[in-house]
């Protein structure tokens, strides 16, 4: 609904003059007259009596005036609410993430962000790299922590280089060296994530033209660590994931070094998601 004509009507009644109303609203007198006529035509009622000395409400206009005031008032409230939304971040942010970020980054991020923006809620989607690509593609999430290279078509911001490390059972012979060669790890019974989410490790083996002896596969990162702890094999995992989860296993750098690039992918320009994405970039820079 075009409320400008109702504002013009309200101002004309207030000033009792089309000329004065036009001047105050920055319109022409003919423009105001056209607006008033449009209201009368729309309602099929005579609302104003125009004379040489000014404009006065008709009896019908007197009865309709409270409703016109309400239309103008509600339109102002609507504009004020829109203006607040530009400055006040509200709504739900849907975030796709994998285990290490969900465990070690997001709780602190969300707590700090909500202190500044208490009207924001979060919904987390936890999965592997394949799940995250799917969620970005079908619009299930607004933002996603992923690794590079990311799904085509997403706006990605690199956040962090996360070194890969060897995970060995306690007392394993390879643990006698301060560094594990990737070629040697390939010869051991290897515990791997599913092929859809072990891109980083496959690149590490590909770099030395080695093929791992995969004996166990799982989708669960922590299940990999548990199986290594029980002596079922060795693995290569990101350092961020291993933080605080090294009981019963030994961690060694790998040679040649390899890493994954954690990035933040945006699938929407929604104000809350955009604000959180900017916040997340700064948080990672300050806390890693």
Structural notes for this entry:
It is a single chain. The chain is α/β, with parallel strands linked by helices and 288 residues long. The protein has helices at 4-15, 18-25, 29-43, 59-87, 99-104, 106-116, 129-138, 182-187, 199-207, 221-229, 239-242, 271-287; strands at 48-51, 54-57, 91-97, 120-126, 143-147, 155-169, 180-181, 189-193, 213-218, 235-238, 249-255, 259-266. Helix 1 crosses helix 4 (59-87) and helix 2 crosses helix 3 (29-43). The longest helix is centred in the first third of the chain and has 29 residues, at 59-87.
What would a concise description of this structure say?
The protein has 288 residues and is an alpha/beta fold. It has helices at residues 4-15, 18-25, 29-43, 59-87, 99-104, 106-116, 129-138, 182-187, 199-207, 221-229, 239-242, 271-287, and strands at 48-51, 54-57, 91-97, 120-126, 143-147, 155-169, 180-181, 189-193, 213-218, 235-238, 249-255, 259-266. Helix 9 (199-207) links the parallel strand 8 and strand 9.
